[in-house]
Recover the amino acids of this structure.
């Protein structure tokens, strides 16, 4: 019949290291009381998941693991839970400067210079001199990610921008009058590799 996936009576079927396994379904008391540590962990888990889910598509590309049971989103979630949750007690918050949206070996060099432009535009400018032996290419895809905390909303630049362009101009009209957090990263032309993302800070989007 093959392996079982999901619940079947008092058992749960799953896969572990490529093998089908059965385990007993945990029994929880209806009035179960959680410890403060457990409540804190649940709050952190929900906070980070609600944040990262809006950029899941990019994380699946930019955090490749080579592990069939752990995709890029799972890896990004684990890294950011460990490095980017701020606060000693509830309510916890996200430390945006520590957030990582990609992880890999592509060379970034200096981070882009970011500036607000009239007409709700945000401009990023970077240098791109390449040297022999560098793990980089002129045609690496240059990607900027924008996040408005007030809306819990991500926007991402087109994948058509390349390292050799030296600049990226993004239309952030949807964020007019709002301050947004910005990250920058590279993906290889075939999207098989990524750089480590860089947090560029915050910028106010303005029509003037």
């Amino acid at each position: 019949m093959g392996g079982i996936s999901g619940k079947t009576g008092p058992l749960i079927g799953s896969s572990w290291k490529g093998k089908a396994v059965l385990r007993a379904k945990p029994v929880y008391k209806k009035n179960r009381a959680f410890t403060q540590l457990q409540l804190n962990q649940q709050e952190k888990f929900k906070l980070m998941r609600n944040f990262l889910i809006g950029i899941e598509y990019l994380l699946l590309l930019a955090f490749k693991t080579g592990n069939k049971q752990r995709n890029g989103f799972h890896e990004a979630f684990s890294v950011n839970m460990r490095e980017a949750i701020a606060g000693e007690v509830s309510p916890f918050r996200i430390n945006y400067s520590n957030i990582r949206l990609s992880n890999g070996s592509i060379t970034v060099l200096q981070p882009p210079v970011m500036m607000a432009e009239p007409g709700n535009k945000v401009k990023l400018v970077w240098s791109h001199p390449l040297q022999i032996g560098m793990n980089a290419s002129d045609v690496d895809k240059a990607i900027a990610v924008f996040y408005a905390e007030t809306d819990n909303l991500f926007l991402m630049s087109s994948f058509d921008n390349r390292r050799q362009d030296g600049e990226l101009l993004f239309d952030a009209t949807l964020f007019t009058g709002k301050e947004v957090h910005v990250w920058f990263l590279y993906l290889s032309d075939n999207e098989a590799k990524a750089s480590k993302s860089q947090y560029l800070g915050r910028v106010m989007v303005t029509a003037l």
Observations:
- The mean pLDDT is 89.
- The first strand starts at residue 6 and ends at 8.
- The radius of gyration is 21 Å.
- The helical segments are 36-52, 56-62, 72-83.
